[in-house]
Structures are given as C-alpha cells and as structure tokens.
Amino acid sequence: MDGTPNIAKIGALLGDNTRARMLSTLMHGKALTASELAREAGVTAQTATSHLAKMEAGGLLALRKQGRHKYFALANDDVAALLETLMGLSAGVEPIRITTGPRDSAMRNARVCYNHLAGNKGIQLHDALITKRYLKHNDAELVLTRKGSHFMQEFGIDLDSLQASRTPMCRSCLDWSERRSHLAGSLGRALMAKFEQLRWVKRDGNSRVIKFSAKGEREFNSTFGL
Amino acid sequence: MDGTPNIAKIGALLGDNTRARMLSTLMHGKALTASELAREAGVTAQTATSHLAKMEAGGLLALRKQGRHKYFALANDDVAALLETLMGLSAGVEPIRITTGPRDSAMRNARVCYNHLAGNKGIQLHDALITKRYLKHNDAELVLTRKGSHFMQEFGIDLDSLQASRTPMCRSCLDWSERRSHLAGSLGRALMAKFEQLRWVKRDGNSRVIKFSAKGEREFNSTFGL
DNA sequence: TCCATACTTCGACGATAACCGAAGCATACA
DNA sequence: TGTATGCTTCGGTTATCGTCGAAGTATGGA
Question: Which nucleotide is at minimal CA–C1' distance from B68?
Fold first, then answer.
C-alpha cells in the first residue's frame, strides 16, 4: 500500500531527458517506430531500444509489433494526463515565460493532447458542450446527456463503438496552458478525428500545433454556438 | 514552451527513493524538520540536506526557517495532487494488490491527502456537499453556493480568512484509491482541521490513516446527511 | 562564555545508468 | 537465396549522483 517505491520508479522513468523527449513526442498521439523515436530524441537505435524497453516495462508505453517495426504509443490516457500535469507544474515553477513567440501562441490556441483537442479551442469546445447541455457534470464525472447523444449521432460520431472501448467516454483533462479542463476520453478522441476528417483542422507534422482552416473555424464556431 | 527539459527535471527529483519517501511523508500535511525527514527516510543529515535543497530549488518543497530548525512542507496543492496522481498510476500499473490488510483498508477508508480528507470518507463528503447543493460544478471549477456559504459559517468555518489565502478555496483532487474526486483547496483543509478540533477524527501518528471516533462518525454522518 | 543541537560544506567512494561501437538476430523484398 | 532494413544484445567507457565521514557554521540555552 505504501506507494513510495513505485512513485520513485515512475519518477526515474520520467527523469531522463531522452525519455522525456520521447514521451513528449508521443503526446502527438501517433504511434511511432523505435527508429523514429531514436531520431527524434537524438540518440542511436541501441540507446533508444533500452529506453523504450524500460518505459514499456514501467507501463508508460504500449507496444504494437508490425512486421519488422515496433510502434510505440503512450500506454493510456492516464499517462497522457500525467504528462500534461507535469508540464503544467513545471511551467508554474519555472520563471514565467513572458515572451510568447508565434509558435507558442499557436500551441496555446490549439494543440493535440495525446489524441484530443487541447488549448484555448479545446476549452471552448468543452465549455460549449456544457452550455448546450450536451455534457453535464455528474459528481466528479462528465457524462453525455440524451440531448448530447443525439447531437453526436447527427454529427457522425459512432457512439456504440465508443461505448465498447475500454477507456471512459468522457474524461476531463487539465489543460496546462489554460489551467482549465478540456474534453478527453474516447469521445474527445472521436471528435478530434472527426474534425480532421472534415478538414476543419490540420496537424502540423513537427509539433503538437493544430491549425484551423478558415472554413473549419467558421463551421466549428457555428456548430458549437461560439 | 517545449516543456521537455522541465518534466525531466521534476521527474528526476521524484525518481530517487529517498526523496520519494520524504515526499510521501510530507503528504501527511505537517511540516517537518530536516532531521525528522532524514530519520524518516533513513539517511544521515548531510544526505537529507542535499535532497531537501534540491527539492526546494525544484519548487516541490516550501521552506520555513524557525530558529535553528528548518521546516519543510510540500510547496502547494499542485505538488500534492501530482503525488496522488503518481500513486494512482503506479497502483494501476503494478500487479493489483489483492491482499488488503487492515492497514490498507483503513487507508482506503480515510486518510489525509496533504492536509484534507481523502479516501472513501473524503468522497462521501465531497458527494454529500454536492447533493445538498452546498457545492456545485461551474464548468470545471467547484464553487461554494450561497447555501453552502451559510452552512460553512454555521459549522464554524471562517470563510473570510479562507478567501484571503492564495490557494483556491475549492479544488477537486483525484483520489488514488477510489479514482473519484474529493475536496481539496483551502476549504478542504479547513474542514479537516474542524473535524480534528471537534475530535471527530484523530490522525494516526505514523501513517496517513485517519480514525473516526464512534461519536465522530455518527455526527459526521448526520451533519452531511449520510 | 561554553556546550549542545541543527544544519551545511567538502571530499572521497561506489553504484548506477546513459551512451555508443560492433556484432547479431529477424523480417521484408527482390 | 541474398541483401537491405529495423531492432537487439554485449562490452566497455564515461558521467552523474547518492552516500557518508569529518569538519565547519549558526542558533538556543545554561
């Protein structure tokens, strides 16, 4: 029951720069191969192998083998949430960055958090869903209302398959740039996927930034009453 | 804006067994001196000094000097929340502990989380406050209603002084044993203090366990409609 | 003033772990 | 079957960091 050794173990996993860089990269939400992660982190393949094995054993990463490739992704939403929390905490601890370059403001506006929408746009979405009574708080939980279910179906989200998934459908995730909650969970992921499919948004290949097209932004706003 | 090096830095701080033990100890909520922490962690004073200095520099600990003593406490609620999150994650990752000894079940029932009530009793309290409409969710925030303010004053909580404190009055904190939210923030702390003052509960000196007296449990239940 | 206590600094030792070169295994494709 | 590609294992080097003994500074009390 004494969780001490465990928190040290996870802490140690997070405490190496190379591993931290890999984890941050995986916050994009995409699964990446060992060599991609090696390149991203700036180490050789051997070194990456060792790091990835440790993180998988530690429960931080999930692994999918595909032919001669090994695809790694964050193990689950909890891990993603932990990383966001850590970033939030370290952002608060560090001397506040006053200079916010163009990339920073883009990150604050909209980015992927593991696989769902975060940043200012993520919060707008979250709040709009609540204002329109599509979502409501039930104690600490976030649940989809009947009205909300109806809307999601109309919008082209397959709720049945989401319900089947093991991760909870609605989860709130603390946004590190805004310090407010945005929508995570399988519904959050499905909405993000839908936005991409509709070409409302496009991911920037190299960062977590999400770009809204002009049309996308218009339709996003009108759909959610913003 | 790239939070990578920072998360590694915090991770490294958490990644040492001795430091993790110290942090866990401080989850009791009390501030402890350097030598107490040294003893608790099983290291010499020199070693403790070095660890404590690092954690203070890293923003995890707050320091108060008092004569020749140095009192250390967790820097803020965010740090406490991070630790609870980590414990929850590592509990989920580890092979599930099926054996729940008496101490375990006591921990699950009621314990201090930094300085407020956690565990099953903490969740009961949180839920009761919401059921009775003393607290309500406002978007992601938890706020005290007028009815709630009234109740708290009656109950002997000095809301004015809480409002003056820098930490938010209501915060929800994820409970690692129950995976539900309980009440943190300055109000959570004040309630906990009140329970102790009323002798409803007593802290176990050596663990985070909180024991309800028979009378305390009765009055707790009737006060919050349980 | 003198001593006890609490904490810190310094230096040295030892363990751990990150890193890469070299070689090895496994899969895919021609 | 041969060759390229992706990943792994092994061995050795290097750097970092936790640890404590010894000595030093600061505070409180007799």
Answer: D27
| pLDDT per position as a tens digit, B70-106 | 989 999 888 988 998 898 787 654 444 444 444 567 7
Around Cβ A201, how many Cβ atoms within 10 Å?
21
User: What's residue B99's pLDDT?
Assistant: 40
Question: At B165, is the pLDDT very low, low, confident or very high (cuts 50, 70, 90)?
Answer: low
In this prediction, residue B93 carries a pLDDT of 47
Strand C footprint nucleotides (protein C-beta < 7 Å)? 5-11, 17-23, 26-28
Answer yes or no: is the ipTM higher than 0.85.
Answer: no
For residues A17 and B5, the answer to whether their CB atoms sit within 8 Å is yes
Mean per-residue pLDDT, B126-151: 83
Q: Which one of 3.40.50.150, 1.20.1250.20, 1.10.10.10, 2.30.30.100 gives the CATH number of domain B4-75? A: 1.10.10.10
Q: Helix (H, G, I), strand (E, B), or coil: what is residue A15? A: coil
What are the residue ranges spanned by the domains of chain B? 4-75, 78-223
3-state DSSP call for residue A137? strand
**Angle in degrees, CA A151, A152, A158, rounded to 5:** 145
Other Cβ atoms closer than 10 A to A163:
11
- C5 C1' – B68 CA distance, angstroms? 8
